[in-house]
Amino acid sequence: MTAVGVAKGRVTGPVVARAFSALAAFDAEHPQLSLSELARRTGLPISTVHRLAAELLACGALERGTSGRYQIGLRLWEIGALAPRGPGLREIALPFLEDLCEVTRENVQLAVREDDEVVYVERLAGSRAVPVRTRVGGRFALSATGVGLVLLAHAPGEVVDRVLASPVPRYTRHTLTSTAAIREALAAARRRDCAVSDRQVTDDAVSVAAPIRHGSGPVVAALSIVAHAEGAEVASLSALVRTSAHAVSRALGSVPGPRRFGG
Amino acid sequence: MTAVGVAKGRVTGPVVARAFSALAAFDAEHPQLSLSELARRTGLPISTVHRLAAELLACGALERGTSGRYQIGLRLWEIGALAPRGPGLREIALPFLEDLCEVTRENVQLAVREDDEVVYVERLAGSRAVPVRTRVGGRFALSATGVGLVLLAHAPGEVVDRVLASPVPRYTRHTLTSTAAIREALAAARRRDCAVSDRQVTDDAVSVAAPIRHGSGPVVAALSIVAHAEGAEVASLSALVRTSAHAVSRALGSVPGPRRFGG
């Protein structure tokens, strides 16, 4: 899982880009930062960071914790909660995720693609769920997980080429890393309307994922069940997850107008 | 419920403040905006909005929906998800909220104070829950709801003075609007470690709320049960919500270091 790379590799007007690089310096492992940590993580001079932090505090994008260190402000969460591909999608999909979680008592995950990575929008853990490495709002490689394979299978060709041209991370001895094996897995995911990641992220978990479409249109998200690999019945998990993904697709497509999801 | 007022009434460096006023132009009723709508809602010239939108698109804070209109970007949601007073608090409190929801089958709400308003961080609806007017990430008046009365009861005196100096909104004929009645309700909330909002927001709901502290320290949030007013047993709801709020307080206080909540 990488830091939120808001400004990485993009050139924008200096002030807005710098302000966002300061916000993007925070991540799950670093939810609070001092001024000098902010300067180090952004690569900006301390005087610049000092001025930016003051401006971000003034508009509520940053707050100070009681320790005096900076943290992401509640206001930024309020604005972020309006993102159609995050909470907007989650709200529509949640009842179906809850049903799936109650029936299987496994992990159920909802994810979208952002550039060359998976972003997890929701994760429910059933009562017998296997431990997983993901968190809501966190990122992961497209090439390893069930949802990642589904999203990559339906991504533009240049995204696939870019992912395969970079070093593909290996998590277990089962992780697919060869270009040929990954291209074959993507073709299978399109053919079967479903992808299986068998112990490719952790040694004891299998993920079965299906695409979510905007109605009958393009793939906009993926849904998965992550179960204990031992004893998993992949065919029945696949039927379950595909059925639920179709239900979410229908619900997304029936939301009136472009308001709720951005279609 | 008001729009997210990031820049309202605050003076900051012009570019960062303008960029945030563009983001703050989106709200639950307006999750997608055209360039001219953005200009109208921010009061900025269209040429300025055009340049700002391009910069915000470049860093992923905004996206374009398939309709071509602007919407809040997934990246902003990812960064916002790091806010300790939002998802950080929610994650720690969620198991206790789920227990309370399962036992009561009513609405369970978690909220914090931001300036002079309540912000709802989580809401779970049980199987017999009464309809409520709140949404996660939404705002409400401090003077009317159970969580609002708890948060106002433990706010600095100047916040209370400011809230009482402004016109207090009336939702039903039971809404407290006189300064004397509200001050009395705040004193009662402190005395009883619990606040009751009886049909003050909708005609058929009663809310019973208790403070959440950071360990044994300051009040940082409030927890409520919102039930059908008819037949509600306020004393037993109060015992339940206070017990759960104490459990959340203990969990918040025991999180190692200042990392998770910002204490």
Automatic annotation (TrEMBL), chains A, B:
<dbReference type="InterPro" id="IPR050707">
    <property type="entry name" value="HTH_MetabolicPath_Reg"/>
</dbReference>
<feature type="domain" description="HTH iclR-type">
    <location>
        <begin position="13"/>
        <end position="74"/>
    </location>
</feature>
<keyword id="KW-0238">DNA-binding</keyword>
<dbReference type="GO" id="GO:0003700">
    <property type="term" value="F:DNA-binding transcription factor activity"/>
</dbReference>
<dbReference type="Pfam" id="PF09339">
    <property type="entry name" value="HTH_IclR"/>
</dbReference>
<dbReference type="Pfam" id="PF01614">
    <property type="entry name" value="IclR_C"/>
</dbReference>
<dbReference type="GO" id="GO:0006071">
    <property type="term" value="P:glycerol metabolic process"/>
</dbReference>
<keyword id="KW-0805">Transcription regulation</keyword>
<dbReference type="InterPro" id="IPR036388">
    <property type="entry name" value="WH-like_DNA-bd_sf"/>
</dbReference>
<keyword id="KW-0804">Transcription</keyword>
<comment type="function">
    <text>May be an activator protein for the gylABX operon.</text>
</comment>
<keyword id="KW-0319">Glycerol metabolism</keyword>
<dbReference type="InterPro" id="IPR029016">
    <property type="entry name" value="GAF-like_dom_sf"/>
</dbReference>
<dbReference type="InterPro" id="IPR036390">
    <property type="entry name" value="WH_DNA-bd_sf"/>
</dbReference>
<dbReference type="InterPro" id="IPR005471">
    <property type="entry name" value="Tscrpt_reg_IclR_N"/>
</dbReference>
<dbReference type="GO" id="GO:0003677">
    <property type="term" value="F:DNA binding"/>
</dbReference>
<dbReference type="InterPro" id="IPR014757">
    <property type="entry name" value="Tscrpt_reg_IclR_C"/>
</dbReference>
<dbReference type="GO" id="GO:0045892">
    <property type="term" value="P:negative regulation of DNA-templated transcription"/>
</dbReference>
<protein>
    <recommendedName>
        <fullName>Glycerol operon regulatory protein</fullName>
    </recommendedName>
</protein>
<feature type="domain" description="IclR-ED">
    <location>
        <begin position="75"/>
        <end position="254"/>
    </location>
</feature>
